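Recall that a protein's primary structure is simply its ordered list of amino acids. Everything else, from secondary elements to tertiary packing, is in principle encoded there. The following example makes that idea concrete.
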Amino acid sequence: MSHTPTRADFDQYMVPNYSPQQVIPVRGEGSRLWDQQGREYIDFAGGIAVNALGHCHPALVEALTAQANTLWHLSNVYTNEPALKLAKALVERTFADKVFMCSSGGEANEAALKLARRYAHDHHGEHKDKIISFRQSFHGRTFFTVSVGGQPKYSQGFGPVPGGILHAEFNDLESVRQLVGDDTCAIMVEPMQGEGGIVPATPEFLSGLRELCDEHDALLIFDEVQTGVGRSGKLYAYMHYGVTPDILTSAKSLGGGFPVGAMLTTDAIAPSMGIGTHGSTYGGNALASAVALAAVETIDTPEVLEGVQARHELFRELLESINRKHEVFKEVRGMGLLIGAQMSDAWEGRAKDILPLAIEEGLMALIAGPNVLRMAPSLVIPDADIREGMARLERAVERLVSQG
């Protein structure tokens, strides 16, 4: 007898580290989803900035289908053509010379941090092991990355955290100067903090970090897991700033929904990750690489990237229109199609209360902490879907205000 899963099955069979919404989407097309009852939703969540081309984009479906009928997985005892094509495409489009493939952003950041420490060990000695990160940052859920991330709630209760990790204040260069020294091996930063509230870095801050790294022979790591592959309006957010990192991490939009991650670096640094120093069973998987290449080639076009900025302006215009009526937001901020609306003082900490109301109105959205409503839709979401989605959001906000 066939069984149709329900939300209750999650509570019965799954480890309770998530608390998903009651609806179960079963089909997606473009920027719309349908649940088990056939109810339609507009998707402003984008799988948390993953579904960069929406759901079931023809270019990704074609790439996946063609590869699925050819070769799925080998292991890194061998290489494969899709992985080599993806690596070449990333190198040709960025500052990088070399690429390490993995399956997620957390793995990409883990690799970046290990490479930075190994490089410092090889070139300067064991004493040079300090890593500087920033409060409210988020770099993944491995124990190393969650410790480097600047939100202690994610590492509490798991035992002693790795040593040699310091946290400064984001967008405060002086706080970094107080921590950096000749024992610093790397500074890790998001060009725009995502989980920390959708806060873009200032140009002065990032250029100052570059100068401090150069002064102290430290590596500058940009975590572009959430901001990368078109999300900011350029292929990678560092391109907005004119600041080039030594190591860059990428995931989320890179696969357009297929699990894949990558760490990018230079010829000068890559040799420290020599044979046997690091690995990933699924890294460079043929299926993932084929889909990611299709995503990169589709996104890295003037039509898509210029469209991101136009869509950003429409989102901002409609959010500010909602706010003029209801005064629930203090500030709308972000870059490209990673947008945050910070709640006003009167609605402090109430961003999460909008989400279930939005679901009832047929809209999927996100939060970035308790005080910021977050939107990370498809980079090619039609204007009509933006307008309809914002109309649904306004109805949810109206209900929030009426409930008090």
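The chain has two domains: 7-56+302-403, 71-299. The domain at 7-56+302-403 is CATH 3.90.1150.10 (Aspartate Aminotransferase, domain 1).
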